Amino acid sequence: MVIAGHLLNELAFDGSISELDARQEGNSFTWASTVAAFAGALAATLHALLLEAHRVKLGLMAAALALISFDDLVRLHERLGGRLADGLDLPDAIAEGAELLLFAPLLLGTLIVGWLLVGELSAKPARQLRLGLSLLVVAVVLEVFGAPTRAAAESGADWSNELRIALEEGVELAGLIIVGGTLVGLLCESLIRSAVSSGPALKRGSEPDPVSEHATG
Questions:
Q1: Is residue 167 part of a domain?
Q2: By the 8 A CB rule, do 43 and 184 touch?
Q3: What is the domain extent for residue 63?
Q4: Rounded to an integer, what distance in angstroms lies between the CA atom of residue 24 and that of residue 113?
């Protein structure tokens, strides 16, 4: 949806519809990525608080995704990277690289913890989480190797850069939705499994003890 919307906006409406501009702050695409990351952070937090399984890794994932959600909401690394580029008088084609350098430690930490968590999960959530993390890696690769398209845009060949932006933002959003959705599903599955496993034990515990009853009689 991001890819199609951004390209349609650029090709048909000359970028005039801000809600379809993947670079625009505060539009529907920004809110979608913010909510997806926040949902994953909330699910990981609840899982770490309520259940013992994967507690440390899920706690770290919760912190990382919460920071990613905040960064998406206020465009923190873009603002800081822009100020750094202005201060060093960097060309626009390199300025986005400065932004990525500021975001890299958080993203790298998220990927490391996520891959460690993948090794502890059952097949289905592990496969889903692996896919989401892989899409985030692809989004970073698209941004890292975007200098040629940014340089081409400055010389007038804007379509290649717009295509890269659409792909990068679309893949990033898909990755965050899959990661967040996987963590929400993992929480629900773990809570249901915990309730089912504790149900029979609680039922047995509520039944009278035949030995004690006989002794009392």
A1: yes
A2: yes
A3: 2-11+28-189
A4: 30
Short-list 27, 99, 36, 25, CA closest to 65: 36
Helix (H) or strand (E) holding 84: helix 76-88
> What pLDDT digit, counting tens, does each position of 17-72 carry?
666 666 667 677 888 899 999 999 999 999 999 998 899 999 999 999 999 998 88
Residue 21 lies in a domain: no
Q: What is the pTM of this model?
A: 0.77
CA distances 120 to 51, 79, 124, 179, Å, are: 15, 37, 12, 15
- Say if CB 184 and CB 24 are below 8 A apart: no
| Position 109 in a domain | yes
3-state secondary structure of 70: helix
- Domain membership flag for residue 23: no
pLDDT digits (tens, 9 = 90+) for 151-185: 555 555 566 777 777 888 889 999 999 999 999 99
